[in-house]
Backbone:
């Protein structure tokens, strides 16, 4: 899976105690948070001094993960993040393939003079890193962290804290094992994590059964009043304006998973969620079958990701973004007209 020379080089870097910074991507999800925390626990067990950094706040339903309260948020304490980066000798980048995926932290990461190590499963990593553990055909970055720990000969260091973090990665990045999980190895790793003490039902409950009343009402509003179905394009779109989010007291993570509701419709092969935040429109894409939302997002919406799950953005307002999206999809009308079957 990994280049033996890369394993040897990183293994050598970790043979002596180091000051290490771990970084997640902007708008952190379960995979980047879980992978970062798993590496934090693992590297500390090896005797390193480790600091976990995130660009901005992450959803509260990950706060229960061991070590989550130690993560330093750049948007809350930029000075502490800058200090940690200035003191670090090694930098691990988890679940992103380009430094510009870290938002306001990008300039500081670009200036980092030590070795940069990327662990990621997205397409087309940039050339900004010194060591690469990049595999697209895997469920999650968390799965790659498990493989890396094993490849470094440290499987014995795995424990419940690491297992909980890695299970969170895999469960959330596969939509509770509903996509991007057609690899037997994934389930062997999941079994190993459960053997290490993961209660799968409890983890699911802590992440998915903790809605606030406002979040549930936002979901109902989105489906009843903000759902567009373009039957001729086999596409469902949900859009939420900043006023919509304000009305339901939006909190970080409240729209997580919302895009998947559109994809649950019969005859819909593409689902899109548009949310108005930070003076731009954030876009989430999901698809069934072979239609590549990664390519769609890269070509038209300054984004990217995976074949069936990607993100992008637009700075032309909600109405114009909806118009552009519908116009762009006209070019894919035939490509989107298919039935998923065995």
Residues:
């Amino acid at each position: 899976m990994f280049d033996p020379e890369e394993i040897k080089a990183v293994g050598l870097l970790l043979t002596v105690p180091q000051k290490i910074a771990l970084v997640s991507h902007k708008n952190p999800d379960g995979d980047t948070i879980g992978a970062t925390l798993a590496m934090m626990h693992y590297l500390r067990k090896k005797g390193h001094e480790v600091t976990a950094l995130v660009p901005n706040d992450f959803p509260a339903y990950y706060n229960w993960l061991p070590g989550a309260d130690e993560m330093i948020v750049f948007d809350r304490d930029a000075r502490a993040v800058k200090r940690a980066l200035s003191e670090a000798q090694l930098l691990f980048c988890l679940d992103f393939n380009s430094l510009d995926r870290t938002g306001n932290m990008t300039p500081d990461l670009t200036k980092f003079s030590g070795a940069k190590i990327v662990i990621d499963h997205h397409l087309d990593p940039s050339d900004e890193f010194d060591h690469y553990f990049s595999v697209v055909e895997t469920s999650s970055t968390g799965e790659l962290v498990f493989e890396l720990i094993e490849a470094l000969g440290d499987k014995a260091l795995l424990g419940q804290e690491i297992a909980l973090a890695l299970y969170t990665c895999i469960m959330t990045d596969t939509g509770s094992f509903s996509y991007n999980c057609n690899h037997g190895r994934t389930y062997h790793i999941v079994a190993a994590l459960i053997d290490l003490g993961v209660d799968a039902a409890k983890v699911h409950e802590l992440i998915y059964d903790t809605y606030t009343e406002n979040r549930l009402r936002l979901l109902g509003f989105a489906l009843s009043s903000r759902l567009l179905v373009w039957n001729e394009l086999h596409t469902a779109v949900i859009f939420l304006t900043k006023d919509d989010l304000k009305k339901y007291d939006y909190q970080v993570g409240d729209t997580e998973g919302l895009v998947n509701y559109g994809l649950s419709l019969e005859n819909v092969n593409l689902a899109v969620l548009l949310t108005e935040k930070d003076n731009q429109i954030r876009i989430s894409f999901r698809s069934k079958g072979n239609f590549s939302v990664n390519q769609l997002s890269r070509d038209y919406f300054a984004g990217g990701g995976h074949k069936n799950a990607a993100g992008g953005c637009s700075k032309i307002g909600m109405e114009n973004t909806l118009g552009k999206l519908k116009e762009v999809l006209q070019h894919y009308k035939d490509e989107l007209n298919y039935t998923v079957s065995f």
